[in-house]
Amino acid sequence: SLPRLLAESKGRDIEEVYRNNNNGVLADVSFNQEITEAVRAAVRALVERSTNSAGRVEAVSPVAGLMDKMTGGSPWKRALAGGGFEVPEEQMESLFGYLEFCLQQVVADNELGSLMDALDGKYILPGPGGDPIRNPDVLPTGKNMHALDPQSIPTSAAVDCAKVVVERLLERLAADNGGEYPESIAFTLWGTDNIKTYGESLAQVLQLVGVRPVPDSLGRVNKLELIPLEELGRPRVDTVVSCSGVFRDLFINQMNLLDRGIKMAAEADEPLEMNFVRKHAMEQAEELGISMRDAATRVFSNAAGSYSANVGLAIENGGWEGEQQLQEQFISRKGYAFNADKPGMMEQAGEVFRSSLSRVDCTFQNLDSSEISLTDVSHYFDSDPTKVVAGLRTDGKKPMSMIADTTTANAQVRSLSETVRLDARTKLLNPKFYEGMLSTGYEGAREITKRLRNTMGWSATAGEVDNFIYEDANSVFIEDEDMRKRLLETNPNAFRDMITTFLEANGRGYWETSEENLDRLRELYQDVEDRIEGVM
Predict the structure, then answer these.
(1) If you ran DSSP here, which 8-state letter would residue 226 be given?
(2) Structure pTM?
(3) For residues 304 and 36, what is the distance between their CA atoms, to the nearest angstrom?
(4) Which DSSP string corresponds to 32-46?
(5) How do the pLDDT tens digits run along the chain, 536 residues long?
(6) Is 83 in contact with 38 (CB distance < 8 Å)?
(7) What SS3 class is residue 348?
(8) What is the 3-state composition of the chain as percent helix, strand, coil, each rounded to the nearest 5?
(9) Do residues 137 and 101 touch, judged by C-beta distance below 8 A?
(10) What are the strands of the beta sheet with 299-301, ordered from one edge?
């Protein structure tokens, strides 16, 4: 990669730079920023060279390469030199050749042509779907899309990426817990995310447990092997897996793989202090009066044909009595277990699910696409068991909540509260975001309200939303008279829902604010209600 080449040109390793950047080492925070700016300048130079006078990108002609040699190097080499980096042209040749190919794929227009060919009954070239940033072969559009071969995941590349994320997750958790590793992690698996990443989060579960997927000669993953403790260098972490309904439908073979791997770890004759899967399975077998193999059940989802915990739906409608209702709803809907010994069946296993969650020290999810963040949709908090775990633990301790951001090469592991703050600053409270939304009219105003409602969802399921987020949102959208008028005129129904969300957040104890703010909200609600009903 170009960041790696730039780091090496200064005698540094990019992984060390990333690690120090994440740990707040100021020198490497600055160095990482210099690398990022230089990479952007180099790629910008590539695009500008391929842009014609009309501002459209065209394929680079062979003459351009000849001209580069006559003018002192390629535009990207000169751009890097301007940023203080000297990288030999031959080291970048294959990389920028591939980037030129990617650029051509981005601007290729096959959609109308393929549509007409399809209407004529002609053959449409197949191609993968997914995230074009992760897999440029998704482009150009206009292909007969397919996802992937379910038996081929996790791929070797996904396993390598998963190792990095798991290492950073465990490092962070150990650092925040006096050097102690967590004994159990509640892990959420999504179907479409695993399609996009070719099984990265699936590989993370296996890595936490200390199990290695073994592909056959065709790349299909049907076998597993335990990673020896000497090689693993840490205890096996018990992992309670909650699969989305889509994951259950698409990846039943991978659920089989996970169940086999976890039970393989549980049955390994190893010291309990180095194998938390076995430790907890033995405790649960005695507690519930079942076999250890059944007690080691850790792969859960909805019943067949059922999707989500419906926590998001309850919060959206506002008709929930209290958090206990949401927690019971989560357990009852997500407490169906997959058992590799009885393939194809999802059996109600609420007691094992509760018992497993009661031992969880940390909840964990992945963000792996630049397209969707924590508050864009309700799905993320709908499947978050943070407060469920707190209610089930005998000590009442709230588990740590972590989010991995793998949208860039430098995978970041942040706490949930840090991620919610980042999301609020970059979206809900960002003038570029909400002004852009409002410029689109009716739907844009509804999108802002939906984001505020989803933010409150994280308060309900995890309690990880800082008070200032609600306070600042109130300042932006309610205290500003001009903004109130714009929202009212653009979409009065969405504005009423926004006011309702603020009042509900206060009423449920998620937002502490002044009586002045609350009185203003109550008066506004009545005014907007009158406006919608045509009273004024």
Answers:
(1) E
(2) 0.85
(3) 46
(4) HHHHHHHHHHHHHHH
(5) 899 999 999 999 998 998 888 888 899 999 999 999 999 999 998 888 878 777 777 665 554 555 565 566 788 888 999 989 998 888 898 888 888 888 888 887 788 889 999 999 999 988 887 777 777 788 888 888 887 777 888 988 899 999 999 999 999 999 999 999 999 999 999 998 888 888 999 999 999 999 999 988 888 888 999 999 999 999 999 999 999 999 999 898 899 999 999 999 999 999 999 999 999 999 999 999 999 999 999 999 999 889 989 998 899 888 888 899 999 999 999 999 999 888 777 889 999 999 999 999 999 999 987 778 899 999 999 999 999 999 999 888 899 999 999 888 788 899 999 999 999 999 999 999 999 999 999 999 999 999 999 999 999 999 999 999 999 999 999 999 999 999 999 999 999 999 999 999 999 999 999 999 999 999 999 989 888 887 76
(6) yes
(7) strand
(8) 60, 10, 30
(9) no
(10) 346-348, 336-338, 299-301, 238-243, 184-189, 362-367, 400-405, 412-415
CB 300 within 8 A of CB 311: no
CB 136 within 8 Å of CB 102: yes
Give dist(CA 528, CA 532) in Å, integer. Answer: 6
Crossing angle (nearest 10°) for helices 89-107 and 26-49 = 60
CA–CA separation, 368 and 165 (whole Å): 12
Q: Which residue in the block uniquely carries the two structure tokens 């009586």?
A: 515
Is 148 in a helix, a strand, or coil?
coil
Record the tokens describing residue 532, joined without a space. 């919608």
Q: Is the dihedral of CA 422, 427, 428, 433 positive or negative?
A: positive
Half-sphere exposure of 333 (CA within 13 A, CB side): 21
Which of 512, 504, 522 has its CA nearest to residue 322? Answer: 504
Which tokens go with 361? 């020290």
Residues 523 and 211: their CA atoms lie apart, in Å, by 59
